[in-house]
Amino acid sequence: MKLTTIDVHTHFIPETYLKAIKDAGIPQTEIGFPLAPWSAKERLAQMDEYGIQAGVLSLSSPGLRFWKGQQAVDLGRKLNDELAGIMEHDPTRFGGYGTLPLPNVEASLQEISYCLDTLKMDGIVLMSNYDGTYLGAPEFVPVMDELNRRRAVVFVHPTEAPGNDQVNFGYPAPMVEYPAETTRMVVNLLDTDTITRCPDIRFIVSHGGGNLSILTPRIQELFPWKKHLDPAATAKKLKEQIDSLYYDMAIVAYPAPLLAINESHPKSRLMMGFDGPFMPAREIGPAKKTIADFKGFSHKSLKTWIMARPTKCFRGWPELSANKRRLYNKTTDGRGRPSLLRESPTVRVSSHQADA
What we know:
By secondary structure, this protein is α/β, with parallel strands linked by helices. It has a single domain (5-321), classed as TIM Barrel (Alpha-Beta Barrel). The protein is built from 17 helices and 10 strands. The strands form 2 sheets. The chain has an 8-stranded parallel beta sheet. A two-stranded antiparallel ribbon has the order 5-6. Helix 5 (105-118) runs parallel beside helix 6.
């Protein structure tokens, strides 16, 4: 099955970032995964080879974790400006998520405006936690409320959790901890009622939701204990919230994860991602084939949602379903860039409406 794909989980590693890491004297062992120079030209060649129409770029973990105060604010602004330049240079191939200097809330609110209003980015990337503070924390409420007000796309990427060194046994965090951390992040959003309070944020959860696809029944069973909630009503509410999230399929193209995802997540909430450059480009073709050949996904599910154009893959997102021409006939947002994921100010429909 030959399908044109939108990659919603792909990273850029600009020289500005590598230099900042070097200048700060941060060893690779502290980063969690080796970082190498990244080239937009090289990524475009890989996209052409493996049938990827466009990719939505973001800064990956560790984000701005090693810089504090104004240093983090200034570096984040440089990286966002650089990403906007990449998007403008190849407007029909690259979108982007802006980076925020959390846990600095005031600076982050300013950067949301800069990224979405000035740079016209497609959404915001958040790490799963910031210095051990998770996204549903009271101090982050102003940021989440602002993203909800804007009906923003929020791509959440796992990062090292507190005590990471003690639980990874010297291995890179992506091996075991990232799936666990992704699940922990979602549980935090559930525990703090953030998903219910912010129904218009379009959360994209990395790596198929981490361990969520196999742990959802366990979460439903044990979640009521903490707050003495009604088990049946709570289980139903939790599943509704979990099903309202979107999930990229980065690094889950194996039989066991696909079986679990197929049983757990609505097909209309799945979309493609390849986690480049951390996932080698040579693995893109086999990953697409494995997903396309998986018998649990019908042809309709693949064609309409999982590997589809964004107007279909994000069919619950009104700004995409309302305008079928975006990206694929190279219409732009007035600045020479395609409007891959961005909100339409004229249409307001909750992203958590039921998908057919």
